[in-house]
Known about the structure:
alpha/beta; Spore Coat Polysaccharide Biosynthesis Protein SpsA, Chain A; 2 domains; 5-stranded mixed beta barrel; 4-stranded mixed β-sheet; 11 helices; 28% helix; globular
Amino acid sequence: MTPAPAFAVIMAGGGGTRLWPASRRSHPKQLLTLHGERSLLQETWARLEGVVAPERILVVTGMEQAADVQAQLPALRPENLLAEPEGRNTLPCVAWAAAEIARRAPDSLQIVLPADHVIEPAEAFRDTLRAGLAAAGEQPGRLVTLGIRPTYPATGFGYVETGRALGEALGQEILPVTRFVEKPDAATAQEFLRQGNFYWNSGAFLWSTASIVAALQAHAPATWQALAGRSTAEVQAAYATLESISVDHGLMEKASGLVLLPIGYLWSDVGSWPALDDVLPADPQDNRVGGGATLIAQDARNNIVYAPDGHTVSLVGVEGLVVVQAGDATLICPKDRAQEVRDLVERLKTERPDLL
C-alpha cells in the first residue's frame, strides 16, 4: 500500500506582543532571528526537512506579513501561502489549511506546527514527527498532540493530563489524553510536576485529513462550512464572521480519540524576553546577547540584551535586566517584570499605536 502523503501547516499569524519592541505588527516574533542565524519561521521550515516535501508545506499568516514570509521562505510555493485578512486565533487557521489540503489530497496526513518555537535537537524532533504521523495514520479519528515533559512547575503554560500508555509508534510512547488544563497557579503546577503524567501543551498537532475534517464538522461546523470548498477570496471575505477561538478550546477539548507523544528535549515557545536564558549561550558573567549585537559588560551580570547587528550595548553595574533596542524604540525592565510588557503594549495601542 502506498503511504499517505504528509502535508505540514505552519501557523505564522501570531503577534508576539511580549517581545516588543522587536516584535511588531509588521515584523512579528516568528520573523525575528532570536536563536542562531535564521528566523524562528525559517527554523520551523528547516525542521521539516526529510519529513515533508517542500511543495506540501503550507504557511498561514496575516496579510500584513505575507510578503515577508514569502521572502524568508523562497521555497514556499505561492499557492501554499494562506493570508488571513485578520487574526481569528488558531481554529480558523487550522480549519482553512485543513480544507485546502482536503481539496488537494483527502487521503493525506497533516502536521500542524507553530512558527515561533525553539526545538533542539532537530533530528530528535523529526523522529517525533515521524512517530506522530505513524500514530495518526494507524487509527481512524485519532488526533495527536505533542506534550513537553515539564522541567519546573511553570504557571505560564497550559497542561495536558495523560493516562497509561496505549502502545508505541516507531519506538515512542502513545499516551491517551485525559484533559487539557488551563494555566495553573503555583501550587497546582507543583502538584502536576509531582504526579508526572502532566505535560506542557506544545500547540503542535498531527492527524489524518479525514480525522481533522470529521472533528471540525462535529465540533466547529459553522467555521468548517464557511471555509470548506471556498475560493481564497470567499474565505477572506468570510473571515471576519468566524468565531475567534483557539484550536484547543474550539476543538481538542471537545473531541475524542486524543493521544499525546511526549517530548523530552529542548523546547521553548520564547514567550517572553527571559525565555532567551534557555536558548542563548551565556558569557562569563551570565549575560545573554541576541540579534547580532555586541555587549560590553562591566560588573554587569545575568542580563539579556537584544539589539541589531552592528549595535553595541554597554552595561555597567547592573544585574537581572532585559535591554532591547529595535528600530525607534528601546525597552529596559527587570527580568522578573518582563511579563508586564504585554500590559505596556496595551497602553501603547492608545498612546503610541505607531510604535506597534
